[in-house]
Design brief:
Layout (H helix, E strand, L loop, with lengths): L1 H16 L1 H5 L6 E9 L6 E8 L3 E9 L4 E8 L7 E8 L5 E9 L2 H8 L3 E7 L2 E6 L4 E6 L16
Parallel strand pairs: 1-7
Antiparallel strand pairs: 1-4, 2-3, 2-5, 5-6, 7-8, 8-9
Length: 159
């Protein structure tokens, strides 16, 4: 019994020192940040984010001028909390479009492959929404503005 307990403790310690802990995924409750930056040419943007946890959480509507950003800070345990944040973006002058997308999902694949850690950086350009990919150290197109029929589903095979 004592040996089994020691093996479990050593396994947890190795897990915490291993790649998973560094990449963003951790079984413990930690802080995550979702950042949305308006980089549209000559256009303002309305951002309205919400989530369903145990109850509906409305983060409110925010008006972003060009080069302004909006951040959401949340705490989640990937193993014990299911957190999904959905944002609706509306631009008015040039694109006249509304699009809805999933900005955060407390899933190890999303955290490590999409966000690439504990910070999800979205940049809104005229041709679409970009997400910073930490593995490639650059922004990658996440979604096009005119593809607003549903929430983006993640294809992990493309990464």
């Amino acid at each position: 019994m004592l040996i089994q307990l020691l093996v479990i403790i050593l396994s947890v310690e190795q897990f915490l020192r291993g790649q998973q802990f560094v990449r963003g995924f951790t079984p413990f409750k930690v802080q995550y940040i979702v950042n949305i930056e308006n980089n549209l040419n000559n256009d303002n943007l309305d951002v309205h984010c919400h989530e369903y946890k145990q109850r509906y959480i409305d983060y409110g509507s925010h008006h972003l001028l060009k080069n302004a950003n909006y951040s959401i800070t949340l705490k989640a345990s990937v193993l014990f909390d299911v957190r999904k944040i959905t944002c609706t973006l509306t631009c008015f002058l040039n694109c006249n479009t509304t699009v809805r997308f999933r900005a955060f999902f407390s899933d190890p694949k999303f955290i490590d492959n999409e966000c690439g850690g504990r910070h999800c950086f979205f940049k809104l350009e005229d041709d679409g929404i970009y997400l910073y990919n930490i593995k490639k150290t650059k922004y990658a197109k996440y979604m096009m503005w005119w593809n607003n029929s549903s929430i983006k589903e993640f294809d992990y095979n493309d990464l």
